[in-house]
Amino acid sequence: MAKCKKCGEQKPRWPRSCSRCRSEVDRVDVAASAADMAGGLGLIRRAFMGVVRLIQRAFD
Fold it and tell me: In this structure, what DSSP letter does residue 10 have?
């Protein structure tokens, strides 16, 4: 088993991070950025649907 370069704890294999360093990832920041992206996609979808409605009204 190898040792983690950040904290020195034992870890299973080279490409994987150890359990201590993996748990230090700030999950709140990840969730906030995912929510921001989802909100942005929702706004883009609403704008697209508005354009589609305008085109439909123009052809009616």
Answer: E
Angle CA(1)–CA(3)–CA(16) in degrees, nearest 5?
75
Helix (H) or strand (E) holding 11: strand 10-11
**Domain span at 13:** 2-59
3-state SS class at 3:
strand
DSSP states along 22-41: HHTS-HHHHHHHHHHHHHHH
Q: 33-57, pLDDT tens digit by residue?
A: 788 888 888 888 888 999 999 999 9
Number of domains composing the chain: 1
Q: Find out whether 51 and 58 touch, Cβ atoms under 8 Å.
A: no
Per-residue pLDDT at 40: 83
